[in-house]
Amino acid sequence: DYCTILIALKYKSDRIEQLNHINIRHTFTQILLNSGSLPEDFYNNVMIELDWIKDINIIGICLKYNNDEIDIINMIEIEFNEYNYLWTKKEDSFLLFVSGLTKEELEIKIKNVLKEINKLKERINISIGISQEYNHIRYIRTMYNEAYLAAMFKTNGYEYYNNLEILKLLYLLKDHDEIIEYYNRTVKKIVEYDTENETSLFETLQTLLKTNFNKTVTASKLYIHVETLRYRLNRIEEITGYSLNNTEDVFALQLGIKIKTLIENK
User: Fold this and answer.
1) Could you identify which of 13, 150, 182, 184 might form a hypothetical disulfide with 161, taking C-beta atoms 3.0 to 4.6 angstroms apart as the criterion?
2) What pTM does this model have?
3) Contact (Cβ atoms closer than 8 angstroms) between residue 124 and residue 67
4) What pLDDT, in 10s, does the model give residues 161-206?
5) Whole-number Å distance between alpha carbons of 8 and 175
């Protein structure tokens, strides 16, 4: 009995210490993200506290999910605890910053997290974004933005910021009037039509593009008849003035959808 009590007390003590470390790392992250420029000594002290080697690679990772009841922090602890990661949460996203991982090690750990999530009874859609590597913790805000952006444009699985290509350029220009105007000319009309008429044309267009214009699969995913799909596609062309049979017009609509996501997640 005494042994059982001692083991229980030791476990409780270890767990409290673990939670304290997690909370301290969260506090560090909040300060780094929200305090603008900080003294070099502060950055160095954080690196020492985390046992991070100076000038080694640091990356940001964003896990974006559709169910806020899943125990993400526990899954992250299991895979990344030895690396003394920094972390924060943003609505439906969990962001961590870790140092000292090779690309191969990182991908193994991410796949392990995805595997654990797939074991859950609830259907969880999760996308993971990975920033570029940086050699100093002062770039944490940039890592945050890059990882979040990469996760935003991935439906399931994981994506590297470096693979986004044109989206990286759009992100830099997202506040420009020309970008807003481009969105207004392309898909905004559909969004407004849906709001006014309680229709689903925007979702229909998104699904069509995701299925690579496979109308049978699109209709199935939307739970509608193929004829209903044809009617909706005709309405999209009428409202936007863009043809879904024209490559340049389709590209314009795809770009408009991506810009919409950027605008909504500023």
Assistant:
1) 150
2) 0.71
3) yes
4) 988 877 777 776 777 788 888 899 999 999 999 999 999 999 999 9
5) 55
